[in-house]
Amino acid sequence: MRFFNTAGPVNSADHYILDPLRRIDLDTLLPLIEQKKYFVLHAPRQTGKTSCLLALREFLNAGDRYRCVYANVEVAQSAREDVAAAMQAILASLGDWARDGAGDLYPGEIWPAILERHGPHQALEAVLSAWASHRDRPLVVLLDEIDALVGDTLIAVLRQLRSGYAKRPHAFPQTVILCGVRDVRDYRIHSAATQEIITGGSAFNIKAESLRLGNFTAAEMAALYAEHTAETGQAFTAEALARAWELSRGQPWLVNALAYETCFRMPVGRDRTQPITVERLDEAKEALILRRETHLDQLADKLREPRVQRVIAPLLSGEDLQDSAGEEDIQYVLDLGLIDRAGGEIAIANAIYREIIPRQLTYVQQLDLEAAQKTVWYVRPEGRLDEEKLLAGFQAFFREHSEHWLKRFAYQEAGPQLLLQAFLQRIVNGGGRVEREYGLGRGRTDLLVIWRFPGGVQRIVIELKILHKSRERTLAEGLAQTGEYLDRLGERTGHLVIFDRSARPWEEKIYRRTEKYQGRQITVWGM
After folding, report:
1. Beta partners for 498?
2. Is the pLDDT of residue 302 over 80?
3. How many CB atoms lie within 10 A of CB 89?
4. In the prediction, which pLDDT does 371 show?
5. Cβ 280 vs Cβ 298: under 8 Å
6. Is 300 helix (H, G, I), strand (E, B) or coil?
7. Rounded distance, CA 258 to CA 252, Å?
8. pTM for the full model?
9. Which of 346, 482, 466 has the alpha carbon at shortest distance from 406?
């Protein structure tokens, strides 16, 4: 039985698969090769870049115009800026891939002598030149994981490609495609030896095009899931497809991971007579997050980087970017796939990332809260959460501990919002979930606590705001925003939490009041 792939390149014998060649748009790519262009294909991790390159290799080699070789240069990453060691690893990898992927022994036979004769700063150019001259058909080289190389090693590779460029196609590859997470033109290459900073464009000024591999569309995601239905008879409900799209927004790893978890890991999902429902997908999402799957863990690790923090922190707090992040910071986080510009606005890329980011940032705090805050304290006899008691409990906790706790957050601008989310996450773990909406310039964070109890499902709407203007203006604005959120969700009651980060005494900042807004009851909590 085929299955949904979450590790390594796909193949049609083992995996449900969308045609990789359709994802890279051959109508755009083939003319670039015909025009002898060198270019970049980049996309976030685990979006199918390697699968697309391998499919392109097979496509080109099946014809009679080109000979194409794929090679992964990540093996040289451990050499860092030791150019000699890195170049030996790159050339050995190139020879191995040529032998195993194309049956071509020639580069593996010639590179040791060329490296010894030319040295690491000319060997790659000399090997590619000899190799291109060795056969009649023009050579196309696909170099994967190019941004695994750093500093002087990356410079050495790019400059040798540039040096041989004028000899193409008879004595150098007709086309070289560099593949990685980032566009080479956006690199800032730091040399540890000289502290030199060189922009990627100047090091590789022969680049003609930069192509970005996108996510699946909603139709493509549905088509992938339909392969499972066709082979097993197990259907995804229409609501489940909509939920899968909301959770993943077509991010290929997430699309496959959600389906694999639901259809192959869950005992109920392995019963092919049972359709895949929204509830199953939500269980799968929670399992992926709790297991800290590698894909999610790698993204979460990026949150520690200052350039990522400068973009993500305003998103979490609902503030504007202003001067916190530059164009390079934004482009870097876009390249990582953490954010996108859907609808022209910068936003977290999908619902799973919206959840994993604050949960990862408050992971330690959630563990610390485990001993102090027990779910049972806030559960009524019939099984519903006592929302008034829950928020009153957080209000008391915030007054007593916030000064100490907020200092521990790397994302201090969004500290109060993150602390409440950590508190809520600890309470609902195992019995519910917290859905989050936040973004640049919204001036608020929207939370929806969904809690399952024996009699049904409870939904608690909580709006978070930071007091920037007068209390009256912030209250009026917050009531309107909470009312709009309630209306959108079809709820009649909700809560507005206003954090006052000024130096006012706690007696002035702590309060609770009930307001009516357009027929809806909103409890306001000052903190």
Report:
1. 465, 526
2. yes
3. 19
4. 67
5. no
6. helix
7. 10
8. 0.86
9. 466
